């Protein structure tokens, strides 16, 4: 009769899950005639083999860690912000618009790009939130619909108005001017500035949840919206705000994708980083301080599997399988129901009578 | 079918919902099961219908002990229960619901089933359009459909849980007539779970009375209503005089022709004047409409007609939060459902309930504040105890500890439910301190002694209508019992 909440997975659970998922992946490798040791070695080499690889893993980590940090807010408030993927995409689109259409001195350019990206992500998320609070559209459905719209918008821009002058490839816009890009470390795709921003965002969200009225209200809302309302939490406002801030942070992640990982707006610009971030947060049991590490692990596995493919001719989606299986095992063993089921209040009260 | 319940025990944590109940039922009779809320009626019937397994004791059908694994298992052995909210599926058609759990083939024979539904309905004097959607049916019609379904599935014993709440007088008549027919012509057994004395008197052959999980007595019907009231409610302890703090004659909270409704019940034409500093009690068994009125006063339920005035201001359309900020508080009955938040600790609750919070939370301040309130309200718990680990009584104290100091109107449901006598008395002393400081109290209770002893004035609700207002010091639990029974 108790409400189902996030269970913190036991510290035993995570090692079990890691071992179990390694076993499953090993089995898969063996089925395809590759020795697991060779496979994992290849992955490790692919992720940390040399400095370029490490830089690449880190650069991929930035938007993932940002989106995960934003999702901590919405998960805390009990919201399933599946729309985070679309919020990343809209951030990328907005940053691209500034990069392509506005001419300003370098630093101002970057500030404009990042702020527009945040605003676009926030608005996109706010739309989902409004659909939920005013239109009674569950945020999962609203979010999925807006994800699709964001991707369609990107494709339209790339093949239409923002098409490179030399003609229609369906791949991306022309490269942005150098001053519009984030300053990169040597010739990698990693922007040290973006790493700093990410760490600041994570620490900020940590303190917001720990020490502010707003953070406490989100927690209350996520654990029991009815009680929170009775205690005077303005549910609608806090729901919209949580979504919008998550969207802003995700949008920031999207801008990093176009301004450092790539140098232009591409097709599938996010490529599922939003969904990956959802997995990261589930694995962390909404503990924000764990998310950067889990995100880094994910990033390493996914980048490592590219080398795996080169070495063993196995498809690189094996990395996705490894992380996916791991999340499933943690959820399974931890009994972690990410969010409470629809309340059975009536039944529960009945049973007490 | 002969049914015997032997020493049935069912506990929920510390609550002894059924504490060794034995009773026997003969075929061809209609039985009443009477008792206050929390007396254990519903639990006992849920045990009999396979919804709960008993912790101890056994069910005997036709001299053979049985154990049910589920409600459908119980139904297969002849026992069917119609719940207060029929367990049908609103988005489906009548005929689909009728076939539910019955025709186990893959392709359903709608034509034959429709024919059979019509035949059965005719026999009972009901009428259904097989293709109508459940949503379009009234509660009474849904009950009738559920009854037909259970009978088609072979129910010999029909349990009806508060069947007359929310249905029309006409439907009640038709329901009672069909029950009489079933019992007399087909030797079925019917059990009517109710707190309505008139229904019991009208329909039943025999009544069992439960109190606090025990069978207190049983008697053949008809019998004097007075006798039933006495069995249902406990003896009064000696009356203690108390001083009223009601200040003046003008109304602090005024309800004018107020009408409210939810999906089950309509309450209309409520007129009440509650004076500043008054303690006003509302009697009535759960689901009689008193909760709707309380929630309307709190701004939690829209008022469909009429006006509510607070201190001469029209607050009819004020939302809950606005009322909260002007000093109205609402303490609901479901503590962990709509008052406290499982997963947050006491300190977080105290911080959350602060009406004027700063952006940054000063946890050190709240730790002291929480500690102080724990002392003052004698909560057995620590600053960082999660509320769900507290006992029911301490959860209630926590709710009181969260109330702001300058409260003007306190709306409460069952303020001392689950508390022992000492804690209840102590809670009321705290409430009186607040009343002295200017708070007006409007509370709902099912505890007649509490109502008589603690209130200045009392009204009772029964099936959505409000009784006259009685002076607490001129009434008795007996009189209230009659008012609650709608007599």
State the share of residues found in helices of chain A, binned by percent.
Answer: over 70%
Give a short account of the largest sheet of chain A: none
Radius of gyration of chain A: 21 Å
Q: Nearest-angstrom radius of gyration of chain B? A: 25 Å
Q: Which overall shape of chain B is indicated by the principal axes computed on the Cα atoms?
A: globular
Oligomeric state of the chains in view: heterodimer
CATH top level label of the largest domain in chain B: Alpha Beta
Total domains of chain A: 1
CATH superfamily of the largest domain in chain B: P-loop containing nucleotide triphosphate hydrolases
Q: List low-confidence stretches of chain B.
A: none
Average predicted local confidence, pLDDT of chain B: 86
Describe the structure.
The complex is a heterodimer of chains A (353) and B (487). Chain A is mainly α and 353 residues long. The model of chain A is unreliable at 1-9 and 336-353 (pLDDT under 50). Helices cover 71% and strands 0% of the residues of chain A. Chain A contains 14 helices and no strands. In chain A, helix 1 packs antiparallel against helix 13, helix 3 crosses helix 8 and helix 4 (84-101) packs antiparallel against helix 5. Chain B is α/β, with parallel strands linked by helices and 487 residues long. Chain B has two domains: 3-232, Rossmann fold (3-Layer(aba) Sandwich), CATH 3.40.50.300; 251-484, Rossmann fold (3-Layer(aba) Sandwich), CATH 3.40.50.300. Chain B is built from 17 helices and 21 strands. In chain B, strands 13, 16, 17, 18, 19, 20 and 21 form a seven-stranded mixed sheet that branches. In chain B, strands 6-7-8-3-9-10 form a six-stranded mixed sheet, with helices on both faces. A four-stranded antiparallel sheet of chain B has the order 2-1-4-5, covered by helices on one side. In chain B, a hairpin with a 2-residue loop joins strand 14 and strand 15 (313-314). The interface between A and B is large, with 31 and 40 residues.
């Amino acid at each position: 009769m108790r409400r189902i909440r996030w269970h913190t997975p036991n510290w035993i659970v995570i090692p079990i899950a890691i071992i179990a998922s390694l076993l499953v992946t090993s089995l898969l490798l063996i089925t395809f005639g590759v020795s697991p040791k060779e496979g994992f070695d290849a992955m490790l080499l692919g992720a940390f083999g040399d400095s370029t690889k490490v830089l690449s893993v880190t650069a991929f980590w930035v938007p993932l860690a940002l989106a995960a940090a934003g999702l901590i807010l919405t998960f805390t408030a009990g919201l399933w912000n599946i729309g985070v993927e679309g919020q990343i995409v809209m951030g990328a689109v907005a940053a691209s618009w500034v990069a392509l259409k506005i001419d300003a001195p370098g630093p101002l350019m970057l500030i404009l790009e990042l702020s527009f990206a945040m605003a676009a992500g926030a608005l996109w998320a706010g739309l989902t939130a409004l659909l939920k609070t005013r239109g009674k559209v569950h945020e999962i459905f609203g979010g999925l619909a807006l994800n699709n719209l964001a991707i369609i918008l990107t494709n339209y821009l790339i093949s239409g108005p923002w098409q490179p002058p030399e003609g229609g490839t369906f791949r991306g816009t022309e490269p942005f001017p150098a001053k519009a890009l984030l300053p990169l470390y040597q010739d990698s795709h990693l922007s040290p500035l973006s790493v700093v921003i990410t760490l600041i965002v994570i620490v900020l969200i940590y303190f917001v949840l720990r020490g502010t009225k707003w953070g406490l209200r989100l927690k209350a809302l996520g654990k029991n919206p009815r009680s929170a309302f009775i205690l005077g939490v303005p549910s609608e406002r806090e729901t919209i705000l949580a979504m919008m801030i998550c969207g802003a942070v995700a949008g920031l992640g999207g801008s990093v994708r176009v301004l450092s990982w790539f140098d232009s707006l591409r097709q599938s610009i996010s490529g599922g980083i939003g969904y990956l971030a959802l997995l990261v947060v589930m694995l962390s049991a909404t503990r924000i301080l764990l998310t950067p590490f889990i995100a880094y692990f994910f990033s390493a596995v996914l980048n490592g599997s590219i080398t795996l493919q080169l070495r063993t001719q196995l498809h690189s989606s094996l990395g996705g399988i490894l992380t996916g299986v791991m999340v499933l095992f943690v959820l399974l063993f931890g009994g972690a129901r990410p969010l409470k089921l629809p309340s059975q209040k009536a039944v529960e009260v009945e049973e007490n009578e | 079918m002969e049914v015997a319940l032997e020493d049935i025990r069912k506990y929920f944590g510390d609550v002894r919902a059924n504490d060794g109940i034995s009773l026997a039922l003969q075929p061809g009779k209609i039985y009443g099961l009477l008792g206050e809320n929390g007396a254990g009626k519903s639990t006992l019937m849920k045990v009999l219908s396979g919804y709960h397994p008993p912790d101890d004791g056994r069910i005997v059908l036709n001299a053979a002990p049985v154990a049910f694994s589920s409600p459908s298992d119980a139904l297969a052995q002849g026992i069917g229960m119609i719940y207060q909210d029929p367990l049908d599926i609103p988005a489906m058609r009548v005929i689909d619901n009728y076939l539910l759990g019955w025709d186990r083939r893959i392709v359903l024979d709608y034509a034959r089933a429709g024919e059979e539904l019509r035949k059965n309905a005719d026999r009972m004097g009901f009428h259904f359009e097989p293709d109508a959607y459940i949503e379009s049916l009234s509660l009474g019609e849904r009950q009738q459909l559920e009854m037909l379904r259970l009978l088609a599935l072979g129910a010999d014993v029909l349990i009806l849980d508060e069947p007359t709440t929310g249905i029309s007088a006409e439907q009640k008549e038709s329901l009672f007539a069909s029950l009489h027919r079933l019992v007399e012509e087909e030797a079925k057994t019917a059990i009517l779970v109710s707190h309505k004395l008139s229904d019991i008197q009208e329909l039943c052959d025999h009544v069992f009375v439960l109190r606090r999980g025990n069978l207190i007595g049983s008697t053949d019907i008809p019998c004097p209503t007075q006798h039933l009231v006495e069995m249902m409610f406990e003896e009064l302890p000696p009356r203690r005089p108390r001083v009223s703090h009601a200040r003046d004659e003008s109304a602090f909270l005024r309800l004018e022709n107020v009408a409210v409704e939810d999906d089950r019940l309509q309450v209309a034409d409520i007129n009440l004047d509650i004076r500043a500093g008054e303690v006003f009690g509302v009697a009535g068994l759960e689901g009689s409409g008193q909760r709707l009125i309380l929630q309307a006063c709190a701004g939690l339920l829209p008022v469909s007609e009429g006006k509510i005035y607070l201190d001469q201001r029209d607050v009819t359309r004020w939302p809950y939060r606005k009322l909260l900020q002007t000093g109205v508080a609402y303490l609901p009955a479901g503590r962990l459902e709509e008052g406290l938040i499982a997963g947050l600790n006491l300190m977080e609750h105290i911080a959350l309930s602060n009406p004027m919070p700063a952006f940054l939370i000063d946890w050190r301040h709240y730790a002291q504040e929480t500690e102080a309130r724990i002392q003052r309200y004698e909560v057995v718990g620590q600053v960082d105890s999660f509320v769900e680990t507290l006992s029911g009584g301490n959860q209630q104290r926590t709710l009181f500890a969260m109330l702001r100091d300058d409260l003007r109107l306190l709306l409460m449901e069952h303020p001392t439910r689950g508390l022992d006598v000492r804690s209840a008395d102590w809670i009321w002393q705290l409430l009186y301190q607040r009343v002295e400081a200017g708070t007006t109290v409007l509370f709902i209770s099912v505890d007649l002694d509490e109502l008589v002893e603690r209130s200045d004035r009392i009204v009772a609700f029964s099936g959505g209508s409000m009784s006259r207002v009685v002076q607490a010091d001129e009434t008795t639990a007996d009189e209230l019992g009659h008012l609650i029974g709608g007599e």
